[in-house]
Structures are given as structure tokens and as C-alpha cells.
# Entry
Amino acid sequence: MAGLGWSRRLRYLARRAAAIDTGNLSRLAGRIAASSARPRAIILADMLWSSVRHETGFQDYFDWDFHLLSRRERRTFMTHPKSNHLAQKLNAVEHRGTFADKARFNARFAEHLGREWLDLRSATADELGGFLARHDRVMAKVADSLGGEGIAAWSTADIPDAEAWRAERLAAHQVLVEEFIAQHPGMAALNPSSVNTLRIITYRDPANRVHTLARTLKMGNGGDVDNFSDGGMYTMLDEQGIAHYPAFDGEGRVFSMHPLSGTSIVGFRVPLWESVEQLVERLALEVPEIPYVGWDIAITPAGAVVIEGNYNTGVFQLKPSVTGVREGLLPVYRRAIGF
# Structure
């Protein structure tokens, strides 16, 4: 990706080399070797080579079956390091805080949230008491967390002392509380324990055209959140919001049906899809200085609402061994962004 700057690339690779999680590398290589009957040393060497040649993270290599792909096929995959380059190049530093801080994001995108929220650092006792009285279930969030870390659901019936609860949440850095989203019954049917969301990745070009780069359906698997890093799973959607392939999780497990609900993932159609497209179009034009964003979208009975926007979004693609599709989304990104 010469257009992104070799000096930036080399600096990034140097930081990655210094921060290599050798335990995770060894674990993933061992799992691939066991499933593929290939020598572990060969897999390890190829993972390290791919991290330099194709800028793959080790989880990228595992998730997208790089050990099965040819050099030409590998060159078609978007990766987390490549996405990081784009985020650093395209998204203005002085505006990233609006997306990095969930409280600031909520304030900026209030009309698109579809839920009530409070900042525990500034809410009065009456405001907090009223908020808890109005809602049976709430979410407490760390404002600057990633991957669902620090997010927990609470039944307000289990909060006898609002001020003591506030103190506990602040001690845990959970400064933001939100009304628990009542999701559309069709989405709840996938996994009722979490709000099952969409990650829609967009790029707004200099002519104010919005390009959708990826459409992802994320599902929880018994927990409060649907994040891939916290036990959740995902599959990709087509332009009509339909899933044609099974989902997979961070351990490489594959699910044609959700293991808890029994709902079929293959063939699942996201309800109210038109409202998703309309909302994402509006969101992508809201902050021109941040043109490259991964939006987390929930579907309520009334339509789509935004959970958050990620200026340094993760990457989502089909898993070749599950789908037979051996081309990634890098060509889609290139056509839209022009690098």
C-alpha cells in the first residue's frame, strides 16, 4: 500500500514487532497446524512472513484462513493493520475524540441514538433516580473502552441505592449509563441476551458520496454484548441485508444456526433494512473530517439507531474455509478510497 506511505508502514511494523504476543502467536499457529496437518514451524514462519508482506495480524491470518490461500488471494484481503493505516491517514486527529469517547459521541449524535442516556459524572441525584425509575434495564459503559470491554447490563430492580450504585460505577470507570435498547423481535430471535448489531463500514469521499465498504451481522452468544472479542460471532451481509453464509467466532467455531436460539443464520434477513441504509447515509455525512468509520447499528421496532461510531474500525470479511469465497474486500476499499 505505497499510497499510505512506506515510512508510516515501517514505523507501524516496528511497533507491532515490539509488541508481539508470542503466546497468542504460538496458540494460533498450533491450532492451525492441528487442523491442517501442516508442521507448526512452517505455519509460524508463514504467519510472521504474512505480517510483513501482507500486513496481517495473527488473528487475521487465523480468521481468514491465510494458510489455505495463494499469494494472489492473500493480496485481496483487507487486514487490521491496513485499516489502521487508513484511519490514521484519513481521519483528522482533532476530531477523533468525538468517536473515541462514548459520552461525546452520544452528545454529538443524540438525534440518532433512539435511547435515553446519562453521564454519571454530571447527572444530579434527581436525574439519576428518575432515569433508573423509567427503565427496567440499563447498560453501564466505560466511555473510552474498545471491543465491549467494561460494558455490563443491570436490572434496575437490583439497584436499591442509586448513589451507592453511582459510586460503584464511577470506581469501575463506567461513567456512561444508557437505556437498554429494545431490539426488533427479528433481531432478538438470533440471541436474546444481547443486542445483536450491524457493523457498517463507510467511506465518505471528497465529493460527499458515501461508499459502503462492508456490511456485517454481529451476534452475541449468551453474554451481554455481541463483540467478536467477547465470545460473539459474525457473518457478512449482502446489499439487501441478507446473510448467505454461516457465522464464526474468534475461536474459529462455525455456526449455521445460532447455538442458543436455534435461529438459522444462513438466510437471515435483517428487518427494516431500508432504515439502516438511510441512517448510515446520514451518519456518514455528519462529521466530514472523519470520513472512514465503522458504525454499530441496532434495529428497534421503529427502525435503525446508532450505538457508536469507530474511527479506527475493525475489519470483517468472509471466512474462506466456510464459504468457499477466496477473495477479500481490499478491492472494494481500493475502488472507493482510491489508494
User: Anything to note?
Assistant: The longest strand covers residues 210-219.
